[in-house]
Automatic annotation (TrEMBL):
Keyword set includes Repeat: no
GO MF entries: kinase activity
Residue ranges of the region described as Disordered: 412-452
Pfam family, one: HisKA_3
Transmembrane spans: 12-34
Record's protein name: histidine kinase
UniProt keyword list: ATP-binding, Coiled coil, Kinase, Membrane, Nucleotide-binding, Phosphoprotein, Transferase, Transmembrane, Transmembrane helix, Two-component regulatory system
The species this protein was found in: Streptomyces tauricus
Keyword Phosphoprotein set for record: yes
Amino acid sequence: MTLMDSFAGRRVPPAVTDAGLALLFTAGALVPLVPMPATVPALRTPDALFVVLALLSALPLAVHRRFPLPVLLIMTVAVAALQARHYIPHLSGPQGTSIGPSYMGVATAVLLTARRGAPRTATLVVAAVIPAAAVTEAVLAPAGHRIATLLAEAVLLVGAWALGRLTRARAAIRDQALERAAALERAQEANARAAVMEERTRIARELHDIVAHNVSLMVVQTIAADRIQDRDGAKAHELHGTIEETGRATVTELRRLLDVLRTEDEADADPSKEPPQPTVEALPALVDAVRAAGLTVDFTTTGVPAELPAGSHLTVYRIVQEGLTNTLKHAGHTHAELTIAWERRHRRLTVRLCDDGPRPGEGAVARPADLPDGPGHGLLGMRERIGAVGGVLHTGPRPGGGYCVHAVVPLPASTPAHSPTPPPAPDDPSFDLAGHYEGHSPHASDPRPAGR
């Protein structure tokens, strides 16, 4: 009904469409458009009954949308009465087939009923109403033309019914396509919201790591400056300057991250505003920062660096950052050794950070087995990060004092290797329960291997 229900590209209300059709067919029933041929038997002169029947054969279309089946029945009976009273010519007779306005009105009512009615109503129309109308027309037709009238009526009404069902099916397909498109759009919006929430979670983790590290440095530096204020004013002044720089850096990082959070709420968010993630190459700057806080760190890198995914780069950096922060927090101004070993033969990157524990006479906070719960917090955050990249993490106190963090991050499979030997894993026979490797220990250079 797209053509019938639209005009000049604009949708027309169904009530207006029905009213227009009713007026059109009423005019056609009351005013013949062409003179009847001489071969047509004489028709009865129109009278009051003709006017009533003509109105009943067309005007009910105005309320077809509300009462489809009753309207069709009224119009069909009215047209049959017009023919029986000889007010209109027969559908088929000596003059041939003559499909006048009244018959077209009934066909239109059949089409609209098939288009708008329920499946049960449409079935009733094609199974009962159309056969009854065709048989009635055939009975009223002149002798010798009954079969032709029956076939003409059946073809006309069945064709209208089929066209109505076809337009209904096309409309249903269109509605389903629109519904699927809307569902797909909703799914895309939901995925976009989920991606935004995931990114917010990641930013929150990065925010914790940055703030926890820098604030811990500021606290340690403040304590150190207070202790040497009277003995070495120049050194205290230097520490105060370092505290200021660390604080400014923290504020800068916070602003950058919060700017990302704000732009995520905007429809035209700019991904380029996201701060770059730290990599393994940023470790020397991190070590210099903790050295300025009073921690003595021996930093060693061995092997040839290899390509790492961005996630592995970030994991290594955060593990070292968390380990150094914990050393400052729990062991104070002690000595620590950080080793980054690129082991292409075993396709792994080994990170080893060991400290000597608190210096004699220097108070330190007891180091807990795990830091506060939550993803991205303390040792639990380390394990979560290393697990996400398929690595292994071992932490624990050293037998002679101090604490060790040992992490193994796998290198990508595309990294060239001199041996097909895969990296040892916790379920490898060469890896014992104490976290040591038989034959080749990552702690062979230290007499105090790291515990778990």
